[in-house]
Amino acid sequence: MAIFGPKVASLQELFVQELEDLYDAEHQIVKALPKVIDAASAPALKAALAMHLEQTHNHVRRLEQVFNRLGAPAREKRCDGMAGILKEVEKTLREGQSSPIMDAAIIGAAQRVEHYEIAAYGTVRAFAERLGRSDVARVLEETLNEEKAADAKLTEVARQINSQATVAGLRR
Amino acid sequence: MAIFGPKVASLQELFVQELEDLYDAEHQIVKALPKVIDAASAPALKAALAMHLEQTHNHVRRLEQVFNRLGAPAREKRCDGMAGILKEVEKTLREGQSSPIMDAAIIGAAQRVEHYEIAAYGTVRAFAERLGRSDVARVLEETLNEEKAADAKLTEVARQINSQATVAGLRR
Asked: Which pick of A54, B67, B95, B140 has the fewest CB atoms within 10 Å?
């Protein structure tokens, strides 16, 4: 989320900082996802993550559109929250091997990423509405809905994967 | 989330590691929340956060109950995701001053915390169910439902706070 000093005196400024934070978070995800897709084994999981990578590129473009509408430069501000979540993801990928257990861990991680974004887009949409920018709120809501759908899709894939992970565990 | 090496060969082990991760995350929240409550100005926000601190103490106890049912020691495993989210929170508190704008930023941060936990408890509940431990799944679901309710409560408070933040911004 946005860090603000004494200079942030208005909701408009906080709003722009939150957008800069999300712009950085989306770029971090674009960079991390291909490695996660490689490490996944279940085709359904690989497909769901690949679709989300496509969407994430689109979320970056939507944020640029929002900056443009607000007359603000598209700047990135370090998002420590997403960095922390992705740090865990990278450790997981380095230390484990592709397996149904790894897939279960990946889904757990990916849902944390989605939920971070659901919270963050919910916040900026609320700020946009409050600032009377319903045009911008609508653009942000499109992404919010895609994050929610991606989370629901992962829950569906998880049911399938966890079943295989249990079997793998029992067969040891 | 849990980091697992080649030693994690079963869903049961991954499940315990995810619980250890959450046990650490809850302790981090218990430590951070009092400072956030101090920095908030709106009474409705202070009250919502104070109620959530009470609940968080209870979430710690529920996790201990879960470890006990599983015959596993209650251990903490560093949760980098929550650490990243709380790092942002602490920077916000250090750099800003109490105001409706600060309150709006605090709500944005607190909802990221809630959503991280919604994702994490959703994962461990699914693992518990998959492992045939519906008794443990029920305990974890109690906390999951409280996290969802806390998030909804913050959305409600946000409507009120954002309205004041806008006015503060306009009055500059």
From this structure: A54
